[in-house]
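Try this one yourself first.
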């Protein structure tokens, strides 16, 4: 093992975040024990509705200084619309992290795990693997605050919102995506565009792709307009390797991708600051699931897989490989007493977490 120690900020948040977090930590501890590195965990109770109730805010005033020294943030889920509106809870915590910590890459794996029924059920066992990454620009693009509304409520009402693409912002996300593709066997990068309709910013995006591709001559590049690309995701998901998109297109593709590989309960996500200046954040894609919170049946795989992505980011590649193999092994055997109800089983959160922990230790 590397013998290194990593400082991890642990924020469980709300709802099933509190239930899946212990399983994620259990599996991470198993991987670190086996591979000879140390995770120094510090748990925080902020970024939750309980904290808000006690303190009237989602985060302590010194949250930036508090979190900056950590190597990564391991995050559960935040929000409970029955208690407080999402614009207070999510905007007051998770979205602050993404911006302040310049987590300009949003990264999601799309991988069909053995034993998981894809909604694309006509696929047969033995078909080509679905295994690709969606890289989303996470700080600018279509999600800008430049715009406004005038003549409100009159017949002249006028609303506008600008797309912002900076050269720095565009190039750094493309650089990340090209490097990710370069490190994979197929070395194929797919760019999402819409330069036939969005005639100023999207041609610029295409131009920067061409420019960046000169630095990565070994990476094959293809581009599709976002509309047909969504169709290809469904029709031939096995043909993708790394897919990169602007903030809006990446948002759409990063929900569609995991949707074709099964339940939301298993999908993880990374919000990455590749420079390392700020901590990156790893979380399951799902939210706090108030409808099942308390029943102890939440699927812990999204949380565990997010931990696996965190280890990859930290450079603990062998441990990360073991964690992914363990997930595949346990889901692959499809034991109904282990897998959770969202996957058709009778298992509970802790049973599935412990099964994956054991598989990691037995690898
Ligand atoms: P959700 O992801 O919490 O739940 C959607 C549906 O998927 C529910 O039926 C739920 O039971 C099911 N589900 C989710 N995770 C599951 C798991 N691990 N195992 C089994 N089933 C699972 O989304 P929803 O209901 O729209 O939002 C609930 C709250 O969570 C809101 O406050 C929302 O803003 C917040 N949220 C937070 C996110 C985050 O912290 N990153 C992301 C998405 C939503
Ligand atoms: Mg989304």
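Now uncover the answer:
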């Amino acid at each position: 093992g590397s013998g290194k120690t990593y400082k991890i900020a642990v924020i469980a948040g709300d709802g099933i975040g509190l239930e899946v977090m212990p399983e994620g930590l259990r599996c991470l501890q198993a991987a670190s024990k086996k591979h000879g590195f140390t995770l120094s965990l510090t748990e925080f109770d902020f970024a939750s509705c309980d904290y808000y109730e006690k303190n009237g805010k989602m985060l302590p005033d010194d949250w930036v200084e508090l979190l900056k020294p950590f190597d990564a943030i391991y995050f559960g889920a935040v929000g409970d619309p029955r208690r407080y509106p999402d614009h207070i809870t999510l905007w007051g915590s998770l979205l602050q992290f993404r911006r302040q910590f310049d987590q300009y890459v949003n990264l999601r794996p799309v991988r069909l795990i053995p034993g998981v029924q894809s909604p694309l059920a006509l696929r047969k066992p033995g078909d080509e693997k679905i295994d690709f990454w969606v890289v989303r620009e996470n700080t600018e693009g279509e999600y800008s605050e430049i715009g406004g509304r005038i003549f409100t409520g009159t017949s002249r009402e006028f609303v506008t919102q600008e797309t912002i693409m900076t050269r720095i912002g565009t190039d750094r996300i493309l650089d990340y995506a090209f490097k990710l593709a370069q490190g994979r066997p197929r070395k194929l990068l797919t760019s999402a565009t819409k330069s036939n309709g969005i005639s100023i910013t999207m041609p610029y995006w295409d131009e920067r792709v061409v420019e960046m591709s000169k630095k990565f001559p070994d990476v094959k590049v293809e581009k599709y307009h976002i509309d047909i690309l969504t169709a290809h995701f469904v029709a031939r998901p096995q043909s993708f390797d790394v897919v990169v998109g602007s903030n809006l297109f990446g948002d759409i593709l990063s929900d569609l991708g995991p949707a074709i590989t099964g339940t939301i309960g298993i999908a993880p996500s990374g919000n990455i600051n590749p420079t390392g200046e700020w901590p990156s954040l790893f979380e399951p894609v799902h939210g706090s699931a108030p409808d099942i919170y308390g029943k102890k049946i939440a699927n812990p795989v999204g949380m565990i897989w997010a931990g696996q992505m965190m280890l990859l980011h930290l450079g603990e590649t062998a441990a990360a490989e073991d964690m992914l193999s363990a997930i595949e092994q346990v889901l692959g055997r499809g034991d109904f007493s282990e897998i959770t109800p969202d996957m058709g089983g009778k298992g509970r959160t802790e049973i599935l977490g412990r099964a994956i922990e054991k598989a990691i230790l037995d690898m």
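Discussion: The radius of gyration is 21 Å. DSSP finds twelve helices and twelve strands in the chain.
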